[in-house]
Amino acid sequence: MSLDMFPWLIGLSTALFMIGALGVLIRRNPLVVFMSIELMLNAVNLAFVTFGRFLNSEDGQIFAFMVIVVAASEVVVGLALITTVFRTGRDMDVDDLSEMRE
Amino acid sequence: MTALTVIVGILALISAIGVVSLRSTIYCALSLVGNMVFLAVLFLLLNAQFLAAVQVIIYAGAVMVLFVFIIALLSPGSEDTPRLDLRFLVGIVAVFYVTLQIFFLVGNGSTYDRNATACTSATQQQCSKNPLHGAQVGQAGSPGQLSFFPDDVNKAGNVQVVGGQLFTTFLVPFEITSLLLIVAAIGAVYLTRHHVSGSRRT
């Protein structure tokens, strides 16, 4: 892959990250908010791998690997929280969770 | 190669827009699976074979199964149309502003050398060794130093190179990662178990 692709891949990563940020800001379903966070983490992974490829280094891939591990544990804890909060039949709306008490 | 990159990039963008715009939660999850698979293809094109496999196995496999399981458990209905309140407008304006700023920054080439050519281990004598400003890594030649040019990596094997780095240079972060996973597992068990015992009492 030639170096001409570098700005396009970084631009793609930026666009994916910003779509994820938009999802976090405008969606109200907590599950979709979580998926948008995953989208942002994936976009950062793409940026890491792209920089590593064009710097001829493996460090980007290793850092992306760490990001994947952090994302996996974040999903586990976050989904456990969502399950605990919303199993009582509450509406799936993050706006209703402005206070952290029962 | 370039055409495939462009096609996969556009598909990744479309599926990402699907995640934030589709009404039904299960369609959002499906769109996110597509996005992850397209990103795995991009990783393959960027010479990161190990990471592409990890992406498909962990993200598209494990994480998305967890998501679909939770969607089935909670069975949320489809969301109504987003409210056109102040938060919505401020969010859209801020996101587009920052996106345009980064596009402009990347587009005018302030972070990389526009005239540089991509290095392979065969052509590294002629080409610029620093396509990105401040780059000091991946320079082969000095004895005892690893070479990370794509040809050399493919000769040794991507998994071998990544694993070698992971267990030598990045050993401490790797071990801390295991600690993080243990903490996450214990936290998830505690959170869900607490709820079950509470509902039994009532």
Structure, described:
The complex is a heterodimer of chains A (about 100) and B (about 200). Chain A has about 100 residues and is mainly α. Chain A has one domain (about 5-95): Helix Hairpins (Orthogonal Bundle). Chain A is about 75% helix and about 0% strand. Chain A contains three helices and no strands. The model of chain A has no long low-confidence stretch (mean pLDDT about 85). Chain B is an all-alpha fold and about 200 residues long. The radius of gyration of chain B is 23 Å and the shape is globular. The interface between A and B is large, with 71 and 90 residues.
Task: Briefly characterize the structure.
The complex is a heterodimer of chains A (102) and B (202). By secondary structure, chain A is mainly α. Chain A has helices at residues 5-26, 30-54, 59-86.
Layout of helices and strands:
The complex is a heterodimer of chains A (102) and B (202).
Chain A: H1 5-26, H2 30-54, H3 59-86
Chain B: H1 2-21, H2 25-45, H3 49-74, H4 86-107, H5 150-156, H6 158-168, H7 171-201
Helix pairs in contact in B: 1-2, 2-3
Helix content of chain B: 55-70%
Secondary-structure content class of chain B: mainly alpha
CATH superfamily of the domain at 1-81 in chain B: NADH-ubiquinone/plastoquinone oxidoreductase chain 6, subunit NuoJ
Would you identify the CATH architecture of the domain at 1-81 in chain B? Up-down Bundle
Low-confidence stretches of chain B: 137-144
Helix content of chain A: over 70%
Provide a count of the helices of chain B: 7
Q: Taking all residues together, what is the mean pLDDT of chain B?
A: 79
* Contiguous runs where pLDDT drops below 50 for at least 5 residues of chain A: none
**Separate helix tally of chain A:** 3
Remind me, CATH topology of chain A?
Helix Hairpins
Summarize the largest interface: chains and residue counts: A-B, 71 and 90 residues
Averaging pLDDT over every residue of chain A, what do you get? Answer: 86
Q: Major beta sheet of chain A, specifics?
A: none
Beta-strand content of chain B: under 5%
Global morphology of chain B: globular
Radius of gyration of chain A, CA atoms, in whole angstroms: 17 Å
Which assembly state applies to the chains in this document?
Answer: heterodimer
* Total number of beta strands of chain B: 0
Global morphology of chain A: elongated
- Can you tell me the CATH topology of the domain at 1-81 in chain B? Four Helix Bundle (Hemerythrin (Met), subunit A)
